[in-house]
Design goal:
Layout: H1 7-17, H2 27-39, H3 43-49, E1 52-57, E2 60-65, H4 66-69, H5 76-79, E3 92-93, H6 97-107, H7 117-129, H8 133-141, E4 146-147, E5 160-165, E6 174-176, H9 179-189, H10 205-227, E7 233-237, E8 246-260, E9 274-277, H11 280-293, E10 304-315, E11 318-321, H12 322-336, E12 346-361, E13 364-375, H13 378-383, H14 390-393
Parallel strand pairs: 1-3, 5-8, 10-13
Antiparallel strand pairs: 1-2, 4-5, 6-7, 7-8, 7-12, 8-9, 8-12, 9-10, 10-11, 12-13
Helix pairs in contact: 1-2, 2-3, 6-7, 7-8, 9-10
Amino acid sequence: MYIDRNPDVFRDIVKHMQGYYVAAKDEVHLENLMMDAHFFKLKRLISSLRQTMFVNVSGTLFKVSRETILNDSPNFFALLEPFADRNLTPTFFCRSPELFKDILSHLQGYDIHIRDKTHRSNLLKEARYFKLNGLISKLSLGTEYVFSGFPTKPEERVKPEVTMLLKNIKFKYVIVKGTREFAKESFKGSEDPNGSSGSGVSGGDVGMKDDSTNSKEKILEHNRSLVQSPELQDILYKPTADIEPLALLVELSTIELFAIWPGSVNSSMLGDQHLLVYRDQDLNCLKKICKQLSLQQPTISANIVQLSPNIFFHLDGQAYKGHEELEPIIRKLALTSAKVTPPGRALRLVLGRTLVKVGCKSGQLVMTIVKAEGWSTDKEYNACRQYLSDDMRDTPAV
């Protein structure tokens, strides 16, 4: 009998037929064994080989169980599962082996230690590459939730909040406070005790369809009433079904704040009518949030912002806590800049990093600054510039 197959692979086939355990050495060996197992119709060997797979990440070989690699599904590997019998999954990835170790730790159910912002950013890129939605949500939300420490209302004492970079927000998860609760009550009230729809229209499927449509219209109408309310409504973030809506705080960087000049020495400089000027990419993200919530679109030069009464402001190298500490310095800066910024204009501040709580009021997006660092003049901004490291001074020119 003549069989046109690889003799080295056939030796492993013979071992399997003799009852011995046969394990693949690498991804090429596994592919060859799988192909010959199909050729000789060895179902038990095929089943055994399918339990593990090799992933080659830039030359570093990882042997993992198929059950582990398919966690956090649907992901990149789960999409290729129909081809697993022939092991046609591309096993070579030109990615970082060190980051893939963190990916495997996540798939095995362990928590990942985030070393710094760069590590988080790079790991988020890998999670998006491999379509790991669970890991993407964790990295976007941060390592833990923060609970309000000193709320103004008793019912807010256990309300969790989450701080996110604006670019990491998924806009479909953004909702207005009260929408989710109204939706539950609306759908619950649309069913009678027997489980059928209570629309009053006979005809089975027709009644259910009409009732569902009416419920959705009620939800949309309720949402419009919330965003148009003159009262400030919280904007919440609900990434998954098993997480309650979280109060959303956004971290912005490199923006300008214009504190409106009141025109009177007796007026407060810390009123509600301030303006923010965003970067183009941040402005585009905010416009998408407004579109999701049916709010008015913000512009590049007219965005209402208010300062929290308990704001922490690190201005010109000094820390100011609350309105009572910040008001005198803002007034002093405003009077100093009155020579070039006449009454009716604004005091211009450049902000480096800013934490803002987002909400809506009367159909507009409202940002409340709770913490910020900034500068009032070029002199103060230049003082914060960093020198190159001392090692660079002794480096010879090339």
